[in-house]
Specification:
Nucleotidyltransferase, domain 5; 10 strands; five-stranded mixed β-sheet; 2 domains; binds zinc ion; binds 5'-O-[(R)-(carboxyoxy)(hydroxy)phosphoryl]adenosine; alpha/beta
Length: 337
């Protein structure tokens, strides 16, 4: 079974081919144009997707050495994401499915991230715990099997990636903030500034990041403009450290609570090297296995969408061509019609 995956939910235009669960190609084009605006501009993102999507799909097929007639299904992100951006991928996928008379599968973007660890590691099996850390979400899911997900913990306000992005903006760094903060933190001291892991009273598994952003803002306000540059590495190192410690603190509690020993991390923040390093310490402390996807499958990509689509196809599922883009799609409301 050969599946074409398409992803256009935010600022990556991507297409991928998966054959019988094995990756044949994954082409990702990141829209650099948003850097100058300090964040993703929805209308610009839709236009860029529209300009690029056909050639990205073509090059994914070329790199996989297949032609359109080899395709057995088309999987595409239908939410969550930016409405216009989602529409581009969704309509191209529907057009290909109708034109070739093959099944069409709408995939929840977050469900794609959950399966990112299976791209390089097809033996990765259930049940597992997944810490999903992206620009829009920070959640811990217990994955019993494909389509059976239980939410263990989630952020009450900002996502971890959002905290990196907003923190970077406060420090005058570029978008996306995660890689910028990571780069600057390499020359900084994690203990130079004191930020504490935020507590969420209602649930020991839930996260909160908006207070950290405010704490960073107040710290920066006390520093004069001409001195700020000198403090950026230390501020980045200390801020990055508390975000990572917060993530690992909740993850540890969730591992204890669920008793699971196979842990997956996914989403853009999983690209962070300091996070990977500190997760290894937790791995050893708890005697569990914590898996991170290859860097190229942490941030948005169509390979994870094709993989989730392939899993759904194996389950005999397909989506209606009436499926619409759902910008605020939740994982527990995955549409399996
Ligand atoms: O999963 P993703 O590509 O898109 C969403 O679905 O949101 O995640 C993007 C987020 C951004 O907030 C970005 O700042 C963050 O992931 N990110 C990182 C790193 N690379 C990307 N955060 C920390 N360290 C990184 N190296
Ligand atoms: Zn994502």
């Amino acid at each position: 079974m050969t599946v074409l995956g398409i992803e256009t939910s935010c600022d990556e235009t991507s297409a991928s081919i998966i054959k019988d669960g094995k990756l044949l190609s994954n082409v990702v084009l990141t829209q650099e144009i948003h850097r100058k605006y300090g964040g993703v501009v929805p209308e610009v993102a839709s236009r860029e997707h529209e300009h690029q999507i056909i050639s990205i799909v073509d090059s994914a097929m070329k790199r996989a050495s297949i032609s359109k007639t080899d395709l057995n299904a088309v999987a595409v992100t239908y939410g969550a994401g930016l409405f216009g951006a989602l529409l581009v991928g969704l309509n191209v996928a529907k057009g290909i499915a109708i034109g070739l008379g093959i099944p069409f599968l709408g995939v929840n973007h977050m469900e794609g991230h959950l399966f990112a660890n299976m791209i390089d590691n097809p033996e990765f099996d259930y049940p597992f715990l997944c810490l999903l850390v992206s620009g829009g979400h920070t959640q811990i899911w217990k994955v019993e099997k494909f389509g059976d997900y239980q939410l263990v913990g989630q952020t009450r306000d900002d996502a971890a990636g959002e905290a990196f992005d907003k923190g970077a903006r406060i420090l005058g760094l570029n978008y996306p903030g995660g890689p910028e903060i990571e780069k600057n933190a390499q020359n900084g001291d994690t203990k130079a500034f004191h930020f504490t892991i935020p507590k969420v009273k209602a649930s020991e598994f839930d996260f909160s990041f908006s207070g950290l952003k405010t704490a960073l803002l107040y710290t920066v306000r006390k520093i004069s403009d001409n001195e700020l540059k000198d403090h950026v590495p230390n501020l980045c190192a200390s801020f990055q450290e508390v975000i990572i410690d917060t993530l690992l603190d909740k993850l540890e509690k969730s591992i204890d609570h669920t008793g699971l020993s196979k842990i997956a991390v996914a989403g853009g923040v999983a690209a962070n090297q300091r996070f990977r390093q500190k997760a290894q310490n937790l791995e050893q402390k708890l005697g569990v296995n914590i898996y991170f996807p290859d860097l190229k499958y942490c941030t948005d990509n169509a390979a994870m969408i094709a993989m989730a689509g392939y899993e759904r196809l194996k389950n005999g599922e397909m989506s209606s061509l009436n499926l619409r883009a759902v910008p605020n799609l939740m994982l527990d409301t995955v549409c399996h019609d």
